[in-house]
Write a structure and sequence with these properties.
The chain is of the alpha+beta class. The chain is 34% helix and 23% strand. It has 12 helices and 17 strands. The chain has helices at residues 3-15, 20-37, 43-63, 66-72, 87-101, 145-163, 186-198, 249-253, 269-276, 330-338, 342-361, 398-403, and strands at 105-108, 120-124, 127-134, 165-167, 173-175, 203-209, 212-218, 243-247, 280-287, 293-296, 302-310, 313-320, 323-327, 377-383, 393-397, 424-432, 435-440. The strands form 4 sheets. Strands 1-2-3-14-15-16-17 form a 7-stranded mixed beta sheet, with helices on both faces. A 4-stranded antiparallel beta sheet has the order 6-7-9-8. A hairpin with a 2-residue loop joins strand 6 (203-209) and strand 7 (212-218). The two termini are 41 Å apart.
């Protein structure tokens, strides 16, 4: 079967997913296809492997909100080779299958580009669970080295997503604040593609706002540039002050939490496939002066946003509390590759400026009571059980367990260091008629708790 037909079949299967088991079965199939193509080193195989993981990302975009994806994508590296992991990855799949049978929806990190924390992220009605899977018996000592760093990353992500606040030191803090996010112009996108499909030239231009345009062009076996004939007037930007252009193929080849995923867009299957494979070209044209503003706070202070060219690239500069500060380029990326109208992103920046300005004005004020939590999140390790047991062993920190409402019999856990909330307690997890019982290593039973809270 040709590789493009394999991707078509997978995308059709993805669209028919209905149950947690369906999600697992699809990802197992996706993982097997990645393993198969890893045997080849040609250019087509490399592209196929990349697009397969882009399909995996589309599940994350379906199941998680953008704030969660941004956190889980933090410090991501190149995806791991599945074939070289051997039985270790088989263990990850077995844990994912068990999760799905219990009603959770697993996202297997290694079949994605973006999920970089944990091996499995489980989505439940009550929250998410980040699991690092280790195909080995439960260790007798606290984690060190790489495993300790994995525990810290999982704990940081779970704390930040649950509480909306994270602090490693006075210099390194993160606070999530809620703003009314701009919405992607999906209706305009769909109409633009339909207009291009109906056009003799195979191209069409849609307006998302003032000096804010989207071009759709079908290659149809020719240079996409040929389809632009007759559209020069629509694309005339000679009077634009800071013109910017972004081709969506950049988002395909460089997946990002700030760019749309082609396979997750609300357009027909054939259009999604064509977009991911370069047969349908989308190009955004905008004048970034639309992001500039000058406004006053409630106390009369002036807030200003400017866009400047820095080394040929546009840079957002915000005047806050009387000082100029650079603002992340992610706002520009979300316009060029996320189908966000520039007017909507401008409104986000105004809200952002007001919040940050207030924080800078009053640095001594404790802002931790006012963050915006995203979702209850927990993290743990999952170890292999005994040779004759099918039950996995979940090891979680005492702090993580306490947040789940699990009561620990401290008098029987002196050997674990009861004054250290980061001690790791191993537990055997049993399925009891749809509910789980956790039994810690000392054989003292802990309070029952439902799977969605793990």
């Amino acid at each position: 079967m040709e590789l493009d037909e394999v991707r078509r079949g997978l995308l059709l299967s993805r669209d028919s997913i209905r149950t947690p088991i369906d999600y697992f079965t699809f990802q197992k199939k996706l993982a097997q296809e990645i393993r198969n193509i890893e045997k080849r080193k040609d250019k087509d195989a490399k592209t196929h492997k990349h697009l397969l993981r882009l399909i995996g990302d589309s599940l994350a975009w379906e199941l998680l909100d953008s704030h969660v994806i941004r956190e889980l994508a933090r410090d991501r590296l190149r995806p791991a080779n599945l074939s070289s992991q051997g039985e270790d990855f088989d263990f990850v799949l077995s844990v994912a299958e068990g999760i799905a049978k219990l009603g959770g929806i697993p996202i297997v990190a290694d079949v994605t580009h973006l999920v970089a924390i944990g091996d499995i992220v489980t989505v439940t009605p009550n929250g998410i669970h980040i699991a690092e899977c280790k195909n080995r018996p439960t260790p007798k000592r606290p984690p060190t080295g790489r495993i300790a760093r994995q525990e810290q990353r999982g704990a940081r992500a779970s704390d930040y997503l649950t509480h909306g606040f994270f602090s490693e030191s006075n210099e390194k803090q993160a606070i999530a604040v809620e703003v009314a996010a701009a919405q992607p112009a999906h209706d305009t996108l769909r109409q633009c593609i339909e207009d291009a499909s109906a056009s003799d030239s195979g191209a069409a231009v849609a307006r998302l706002g003032d000096r804010d345009l989207l071009l759709a062009a079908w290659a149809r076996g020719n240079d996409p540039g040929a389809a632009l004939e007759g559209l020069t007037e629509s694309l005339d930007g000679r009077d634009w002050e800071i013109p910017a252009m972004g081709g969506f193929m950049d988002a395909v080849m460089n997946p990002s939490p700030f760019a749309a995923n082609p396979y997750a867009l609300p357009i027909p299957v054939d259009q999604r496939l064509a977009l991911a494979e370069g047969e349908l070209v989308l190009i955004r044209f905008t004048d970034l002066t639309g992001l500039q503003f000058t406004t006053n706070t409630s106390t009369g202070e002036e807030l200003r946003m400017d866009v400047r060219k820095a080394g040929g690239n546009p840079q957002l500069i915000m005047n806050l509390a009387g000082a100029e500060r650079e603002v992340s380029r992610r706002f520009i990326d979300s316009i060029l590759w996320g189908f966000l109208p520039i007017s909507g992103v401008r409104e986000n920046l105004i809200q952002f400026a007001e919040i940050v300005n207030e924080s800078l004005k009053n640095p001594s004020v404790d802002s931790t009571p006012a963050p915006s939590p995203s979702i209850d999140t927990y993290s743990s390790f999952v170890y292999r059980g005994s040779e004759n047991a099918s039950n996995a062993v979940v090891a979680s920190s005492l702090a993580q367990l306490a947040r789940q409402g699990v009561r620990i019999p401290w008098e029987d856990l002196a050997e674990h260091g009861d004054d250290d909330s980061h001690s790791v307690i191993p537990m055997i997890i049993f399925n009891d008629g749809g509910r789980l019982t956790a039994r810690i290593a000392t054989e003292h039973e802990v309070e029952h708790f439902d799977f969605p809270d793990i």
